[in-house]
Design a protein that fits this description.
The complex is a heterodimer. Chain A has eleven helices and twelve strands. Chain A is of the alpha/beta class. By secondary structure, chain B is an alpha/beta fold. Chain B has one domain: P-loop containing nucleotide triphosphate hydrolases (Rossmann fold). Classes of the chains: A alpha/beta, B alpha/beta. At the A-B interface, helix 5, helix 6, helix 7 and helix 10 of A face helix 7, helix 8, helix 9 and helix 10 of B. Chain A: Keywords: ATP-binding, Nucleotide-binding, Transport.
Chain lengths: ~300, ~350
């Protein structure tokens, strides 16, 4: 595939580091995101997927490891100008469209905030023109600019969140559960919008979610996280066809599908991390089992998986 | 089968500053003994209001029953005085709420909360009630119940809290259990556990369940029958197979096609255009007509009656009228219909024409 846009190398994010209450929210994960693709990140709540997104965009400082955007490190000491240029390239869409918009600001000002900060418009007229353009891109219209967030439904608010992210012409968007708070029929509208925008503007997405069927639909490649670790990574198709890590298998077997006949026969396989029975000096690493399909496993498991493929 | 609860032509409005919101506009359904009836629909379709009106949990100052009856045990719940309602609520009919984080009292040990309905509704000693409580907690899968029953809600995870809420709801062996989106706030794996638990318990205590959700995957998993609500009305009702494999209403088509399937490769998801109707000024005719590409002229003038598809399957759409033009449902719906004997697209395996 094409060039790497984002490289995450041995990223660690510990909260309360050194104290007894230390939490290893992200425990040594590495992955790359290529330009123009959608990388999906799934896992249950508390597995560190949102923390990963927030660390990548510098909302948290990483404990250890590197995040390289276009070859430039995101963390560490940076001049104001460097931070600003990164902020323009990377934007975020948040989960809760009710909490992520300032209720005391008009939609016009919410969307234009980024334009003002980065000095992308020269005067009030141009500013308004640009906002109206953005509103139209996300399927709203110019009357909406003068309204306040409470006047909108959840789906419309999420569109405003998307317009705000698009305002500064970013290359890379982190979408943190952008559809979990929305109704089924509205979810499809927002997902279609995200896909259209990607095609039109050549955007790259990091799509964080726990709804696996939507993730499969929108992503090119998917990473599965469990307790701060990436346990499996492959193309969307491959991951659903040949899940290798027992946690992925368990996660896939837990999704209820809108198909009563299938549901009657579906058996859920529970996952117990103790089943691995790793010895004290066994090296558990992220290994490439088949091309582009990585699994967190020990030597023994690796050999076993290799055998099962043949 | 015995009908345990009957809702007949229920109409309910809220009085707000903006005017009268007609939240339920003529809803009728039955609940049979031991079955699970799922009510699906998007936010604002009236599914939660319907069940809250069965429990009489709506504020009496702003809500008003306009018409209809809710028959339970030969009593009309819409007219029952509050004092009598209190004897039913929590005992005969109980409820599981959506958010286990907010439906438990954070300042009260969980054991006490489970014990509350037992002491209130049954004449038992405290010691006996404690015994029942611990048994209930064990039944819903709280490990080490003897110790943990003294703990507070914040000492439990989200899934465990929902188990405790279920234990409270089951405390008096209710005849009807209403579950309002009980798994929406939970992860897939935890959701699967809670659904398995509910099905298990239903087998043991033989209660009827009304299950409200907007997740069609969950519906396919738990329901015996399904009612689809839109704009304050039931637009289609049938057995789970009839709704998933032989849907008739364009709204049900839309709902089913907007879910991505795991094995089908689609370029674009089907999205129902527009937004749900404003029930301050409910549209004349079929409420879904404005968002439907299958709308007929009459849909804008007159609300469709329930047309019978089979003994158990009814749908409110003019498309089922004998004079209506034959329309093609979306491709993915035709795929579904092919597997259902009795639908017009059914393909018999074996190749006979």
């Amino acid at each position: 595939m094409a060039e790497k846009l984002l490289e995450v190398k041995n990223l660690k994010q510990y909260f309360n580091a050194g104290k007894p209450s230390e939490v290893k929210a992200i425990d040594n994960i590495s992955f790359d995101i290529y330009r123009g693709e959608t990388f999906g990140l799934v896992g249950e709540s508390g597995c560190g997927k949102s923390t990963t997104g927030r660390t990548i965009i510098r909302l948290y400082d990483a404990t250890d490891g590197e995040v390289l955007y276009d070859g430039v490190s995101v963390h560490g000491n940076k001049s104001k100008a460097e931070v600003k240029s990164l902020n323009q390239k990377m934007q975020m869409i948040f989960q809760d469209p009710y909490a992520s918009l300032n209720p005391r600001m008009k939609v016009l000002d919410i969307i234009a905030e980024g334009l003002d900060i980065h000095g992308l418009v020269k005067n009030a007229k141009e500013r308004k023109q640009k906002v109206i353009e953005l509103l139209e891109t996300v399927g709203l219209n110019k009357e909406h600019a003068e309204r306040y967030p409470h006047e909108f439904s959840g789906g419309q608010r999420q569109r405003i969140g998307i317009a705000r992210a698009l305002a500064v012409n970013p290359e890379f968007i982190i979408a943190d559960e952008p559809i979990s708070a929305l109704d089924v029929s509205i979810q499809a509208q927002v997902v279609n919008l995200l896909r259209d925008l990607q095609k039109e503007k050549g955007l790259t997405y990091l799509f964080i979610a726990h709804d696996l069927s939507m993730v499969k639909y929108i992503s090119d490649r998917i990473g599965v996280m469990y307790f701060g670790k990436l346990v499996e990574m492959a193309t969307a198709e491959e991951l659903y066809k040949n899940p290798m890590h027992p946690y992925t298998k368990s996660l896939l077997s837990a999704i209820p599908l809108p198909d009563p006949i299938y549901e009657r026969s579906r058996v859920r396989t529970p996952y117990n991390p103790n089943d691995h029975k790793y010895g004290p000096d066994e090296k558990v690493e992220f290994r490439e089992v088949t091309p582009d399909h990585f699994v967190l496993c020990s030597d023994k498991e690796f050999a076993q998986m290799k055998k099962e493929i043949k | 089968m015995e009908k345990i609860l009957q809702v007949k032509d229920l109409e309910l409005s809220f009085h707000t500053f903006a005017g009268e919101v007609k939240a339920i506009r003529g809803v009728s359904f039955d609940l049979k003994k031991g079955e699970t009836l799922a009510i699906v629909g998007e936010s604002g379709s009236g599914k939660s209001v319907t069940t809250k009106s069965i429990m009489r949990l709506l504020p009496e100052s702003s809500s008003e029953f306009k018409n209809g009856q809710i028959l339970f045990d030969n009593k009309d719940l819409t007219k029952l005085p509050e004092r009598d309602m209190q004897k039913i609520r929590g005992k005969e009919i109980s409820m599981i709420f959506q958010d286990p984080m907010t439906s438990l009292n954070p300042t009260m040990p969980i054991g006490k909360q489970v014990m509350e309905p037992i002491l209130k509704h049954q004449k038992v000693s405290k010691a006996k009630a404690k015994e029942v409580t611990i048994e209930l907690l064990k039944m819903v899968g709280i490990p080490n119940a003897e110790v943990r029953y003294k703990m507070y809600p914040h000492q439990f995870s989200g899934g465990q809290r929902q188990r405790i809420v279920i234990a409270i709801a089951l405390a008096c062996n209710p005849k009807v259990l209403i579950a309002d989106e009980p798994t929406t706030a939970l992860d897939v794996t935890i959701q699967a556990q809670i659904l398995e638990l509910m099905k298990d318990i239903q087998k043991k205590v033989d209660t009827s369940i009304i299950f409200i959700t907007h997740d069609l995957g969950v519906v396919a998993n738990v329901a015996d029958r399904v009612a689809v609500m839109y704009g304050g009305r039931i637009v289609e009702v049938g057995t789970v197979d009839e709704i998933f494999y032989n849907p008739q209403h364009p709204y049900t088509w839309g709902l089913l096609s907007s879910m991505p399937s795991l094995d089908l490769e689609e370029e674009r998801l089907y999205a129902i255009p527009g937004t749900p109707p404003d029930l301050l000024n409910p549209p004349v005719g079929d409420a879904f007509a404005l968002r439907s590409e299958y709308a007929l002229k009459i849909d804008l003038e007159q609300a469709p009656p329930m047309f019978q598809v089979s003994d158990t399957h009814y749908a409110a759409t003019w498309l089922l009228h004998p004079n209506a033009p034959k329309v093609e449902p979306p491709a993915s719906i035709i795929e579904r219909m092919k597997t259902f004997p009795g639908s017009r697209y059914y393909e018999t395996k074996g190749g006979n024409v």
